[in-house]
């Protein structure tokens, strides 16, 4: 026993000395710098979101009680509303879960005043989503232009992209803008109007996008997903031009698809795996503008039973997108993202491992001479203190951005379910930060060497950056992050509100006969 204790002390002392070398100190300082850069990015993002809140409050003080819908109340005049362009909302569906019905209701009860159609696209009638959304459409049939489309199985691209392209083929002939939404997006009543207004204001916009605000359910897996999305959220909180694109919300010109401008249809159809990465690459290649308005942030409730294994599968899907590409330049960009993200992830984690060694050395020093000598000759506690301060600054900045985005979401959906910051466990957030950054490089390397991924019971194989083979395994019980069942049915309760009434009223002003194409 004494021999084992002496060996352990010797190893701890050696590790302490190694982590006090000039190279190790540089690694630890780099980790602190990463924390501060993240904190600065989140602080900048919170300023953009806060500006939208201040602007909305100013409009309310000036007498515009509908500031959550539009900047100028005169925009709600009938003459203005009836001149708005037609929008087709296309939602590829897969499975049915605990949050889907509420999300779909927020989408179809949009207070957009122009002609609006909803196309729900499933791969087959066997999908539980088919029956669930059909019942929902029947409930709103008198005030809603919507239909469910059966797309069939994909053969040359991912099922999601296949469903999107089939939806584009079926959209109304007079549609000016097409809005692609994931079925786990919870829209605000004025979202479609805000996106359309920006498209009308600046015709040079190629794609309008937004980003989700994850609402963790309490499991470590859900907090890992929240942590994964938070650094990305900086790129969407620009208040305008951005280089990032989220496939859960993309508004585009319908004619871009009708005429296959810039190869958007062929690029997606011919081996496309990720809709947002493919379209972002096309936008970069042709120097087209991607924009993200400050109000485009959406509550994203995560499944109450989101397990760690499902988080791992989600992370695998996210890293797998870097293996798909549409051009040589796109491949080079993905390799750069792969390398930098892996380096920064482990560059972030290693200082905490070193800090743990320094703390253990300090605690053990009074009981072991060899450990005490190592502790006295190191800068360990100073580095631990520096890392603690930088981590605290980072977490406070993350907390502040989350608070601001929650406030913005509650203002944009005044009758929707209120989101609260009190539900967040910041101890789990810190653990999730370490876990997610540690696992990201592992997932990325596995995706690189496997060149295949199972997502929602479908296995995709890549070759030269494009899907080359599709196998339907039907082995998954759940899909996505919302706890959706791929098989089976659920019931849902009715829901009525003032916003629903206003939605029906606006729809009755102008909308053509249902299914008129």
TrEMBL record:
Bilayer topology term: Multi-pass membrane protein
EC number of the protein: 2.4.1.80
Pathway: Lipid metabolism; sphingolipid metabolism; Sphingolipid metabolism
Annotated keywords: Glycosyltransferase, Membrane, Transferase, Transmembrane, Transmembrane helix
Record bears the keyword Glycosyltransferase: yes
Membrane spanning stretches: 22-48, 342-361, 381-402
Matching SUPFAM superfamilies: Nucleotide-diphospho-sugar transferases
Class of enzymatic activity (EC top level): transferase
GO CC annotation terms, alphabetical: membrane
PANTHER family, sorted: CERAMIDE GLUCOSYLTRANSFERASE (PTHR12726:SF0)
Protein name per its UniProtKB record: ceramide glucosyltransferase
Organism: Panicum hallii var. hallii
């Amino acid at each position: 026993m004494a021999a084992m204790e002496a060996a352990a002390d010797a190893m701890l002392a050696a590790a302490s000395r190694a982590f006090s070398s000039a190279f190790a100190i540089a690694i630890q300082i780099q980790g602190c710098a990463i924390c501060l850069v993240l904190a600065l990015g989140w602080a900048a993002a919170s300023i953009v979101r806060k500006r939208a809140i201040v602007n909305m409050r100013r409009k309310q003080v000036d007498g515009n009680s509908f500031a959550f819908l539009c900047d100028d109340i005169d925009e709600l005049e009938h003459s203005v509303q009836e001149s708005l362009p037609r929008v087709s909302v296309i939602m590829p569906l897969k499975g049915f879960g605990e949050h889907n019905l509420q999300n779909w209701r927020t989408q179809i009860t949009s207070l957009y005043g122009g002609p609006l159609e909803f196309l729900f696209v499933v791969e087959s009638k066997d999908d539980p989503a088919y029956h669930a959304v059909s019942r929902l459409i029947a409930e709103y049939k008198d005030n809603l232009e919507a239909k469910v489309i059966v797309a069939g199985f994909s053969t040359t691209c991912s099922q999601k992209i296949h469903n999107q392209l089939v939806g584009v083929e079926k959209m109304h002939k007079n549609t000016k803008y097409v809005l692609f939404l994931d079925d786990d997006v919870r829209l605000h009543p004025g979202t479609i109007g805000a996106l359309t207004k920006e498209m009308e204001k600046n015709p040079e916009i190629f794609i309008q996008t937004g980003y989700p605000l994850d609402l963790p359910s309490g499991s470590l897996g859900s907090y890992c997903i929240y942590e994964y999305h938070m650094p990305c959220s900086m790129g969407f909180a620009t208040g305008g031009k951005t280089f990032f694109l989220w496939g859960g919300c993309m508004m585009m010109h319908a004619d871009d698809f009708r005429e296959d401008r810039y190869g958007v249809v062929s690029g997606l159809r011919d081996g496309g795996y990720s809709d947002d990465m493919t379209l972002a690459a096309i936008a970069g290649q042709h120097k087209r503008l991607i924009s993200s308005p400050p109000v485009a942030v959406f509550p994203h409730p995560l499944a109450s039973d989101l397990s760690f294994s499902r988080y791992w599968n989600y992370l695998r899907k996210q890293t797998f997108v870097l293996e798909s590409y549409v051009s040589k330049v796109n491949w080079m960009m993905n390799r750069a993202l792969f390398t930098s993200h892996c380096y920064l992830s482990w560059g972030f984690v290693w200082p905490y491992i070193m800090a743990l060694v320094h703390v253990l050395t300090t605690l053990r020093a009074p009981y072991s001479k060899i450990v005490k000598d190592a502790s006295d000759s190191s800068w360990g506690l100073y580095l631990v203190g520096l890392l603690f301060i930088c981590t605290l600054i980072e977490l406070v900045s993350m907390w502040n951005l989350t608070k601001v985005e929650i406030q913005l979401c509650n203002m944009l959906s005044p009758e929707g379910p209120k989101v609260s910051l009190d539900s967040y466990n910041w101890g789990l957030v810190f653990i999730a930060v370490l876990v997610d950054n540690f696992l990201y490089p592992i997932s990325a390397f596995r995706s690189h060497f496997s060149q295949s991924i199972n997502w929602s019971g479908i296995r995709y194989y890549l070759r030269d950056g494009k899907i080359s083979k599709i196998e339907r395994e039907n082995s998954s019980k759940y899909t996505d992050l919302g706890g959706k069942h791929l098989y089976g049915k659920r019931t849902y309760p009715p829901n009525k509100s003032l916003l629903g009434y206003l939605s029906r009223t606006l729809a009755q002003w102008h909308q053509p006969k249902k299914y008129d194409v």
